[in-house]
Amino acid sequence: MAWADTAVTVSTADKFIPDVWSMEVLRATEDALVMAPLVKRYDSLVAERGDTIHIPNLSNLHTHDKTATAEVELQSITETEKTIEINTHKEASFLVEDIVKVQSNYDLMAEYTNKAGYAIADAVDTSVLGLYTGFTNTDVGTYGTDVTNPVILAAIEAIDIANAPLEDRAFVFHPKQKTAIAKIDQFVRADYLGNYQSAKPAAVGAQSRYLWGELWGIPAYYTNKVPTTAGTPTQYHNILFHKEAMALALQQKPRVQSEYMLNYLGTLVVCDVIYGVKVLRTDFGIEIRS
C-alpha cells in the first residue's frame, strides 16, 4: 500500500474543515437615481387628499396700436390647463420568519428594508424618465452613434428657442456616453477651458455623486436608468430638459410599515409610495439619441 493511500486529505477530513461565512454581505448594485430632485414638484398640494392636480396655463398678451379717440382693443383670452393624475401606487414587501431571525448571523430585516426603499425610489425615477416620450422637440443625435458637441449644441438650441430659462436645466446621460463626451475637445482641452494648470470638464458637485460635471454650463448627470430600447443598435434615450418640462407629485412619500404575522411566525415589512407624473412643458425637453 502506498503512503499516499493512507494520508489524511481534505476529502477524508472534510467533516473537520469548516465553511467560513463573511459577516459582510455583497449587496446587489444599485442604479443612480437622479430625477426626482431635478423636476418640478407638487407634493404639498396632494399631501392630505385629492387625486388630480389642476395647473392653469397663463397666456401672453400682445399689443395693439392706439389711435387718437379710438377705444382700446380688448383681448379675448381662453385659458387651458395641465393636470397631474395621482394614480400610481407601488409597493415592495417581504416576510422574514422567526427562525431566520433567530438563526441568521445577519440583520436581514435591515438589509431587505433598505433594498425595499431603493426599489420604491427606483420606480419613481423610472416613471419620471419615461416621460421623455412626451417631448415635442425634434430628437437630436443618432442611435448607435456617440454624442458629439454639435449634437449637444443642437439640443441646447432647441430649448433656447422654446424660451426655457437658463437656470434649472440638466442633461441626463447613460454612462456609455461619459467616455464619448470626455473625448470632446471643448470639454477637456486647456486651450478651450482657459486653464492650463488643471484642465478639466467641470468640478463634481456635492449635491449628487452622479453629477458628473457641466457641459456648456449645464449640469450633466449619468445613470443606467436612462431608458433604452433593445435592437441593433441598442437605442439610448438621453435627455436635456428644464425643471418645468416634467412634474412629480408624491402624495405619500415612501414609507415603511411592519407587522408581526402570527399565522406565519414572521414579520411582514411593506414599503410603498403613491404618486403621479406628467410632462408640463413639452418643448422644454429634448431626447438626445445615442
SSE blueprint and pairings:
Elements: E1 40-41, E2 52-56, E3 81-85, E4 88-97, H1 98-103, H2 108-129, E5 140-141, H3 149-161, E6 169-173, H4 176-182, H5 185-188, H6 190-193, E7 211-215, E8 218-222, E9 228-229, E10 235-242, E11 246-261, E12 266-279, E13 285-289
Parallel strand pairs: 1-11, 5-13, 6-8
Antiparallel strand pairs: 2-3, 4-12, 6-10, 7-8, 9-10, 10-13, 11-12
Give a quick summary of the entry.
With 290 residues, this protein is of the alpha+beta class. The protein has one domain (44-57, 82-289).
What does this protein structure show overall?
It is a single chain. This protein has 290 residues and is an alpha+beta fold. The chain has one domain (44-57, 82-289). The protein is 19% helix and 29% strand. The chain has helices spanning 98-103, 108-129, 149-161, 176-182, 185-188, 190-193, and strands at 40-41, 52-56, 81-85, 88-97, 140-141, 169-173, 211-215, 218-222, 228-229, 235-242, 246-261, 266-279, 285-289. Strands 5, 6, 7, 8, 9, 10 and 13 form a 7-stranded mixed sheet that branches. The protein has a 4-stranded mixed sheet with strand order 1-11-12-4. A hairpin with a 5-residue loop joins strand 9 (228-229) and strand 10. The longest helix has 22 residues, at 108-129. The radius of gyration is 27 Å and the shape is flat. The termini are far apart. The relative contact order is 0.23. Mean pLDDT is 83; it is low at 193-207.
* Number of H/I helices: 6
Low-confidence stretches: 193-207
Give the biggest sheet: 7 strands, mixed
Q: What's the number of structural domains? A: 1
Number of strands: 13
Rounded average pLDDT: 83
Task: Give the H and E element order.
Answer: EEEEHHEHEHHHEEEEEEE
Query: What is the terminal-to-terminal distance?
Result: 70 Å
Helix content: 10-25%
Rg result? 27 Å
Structural class: alpha+beta
Shape field: flat
Strand content bin: 25-35%
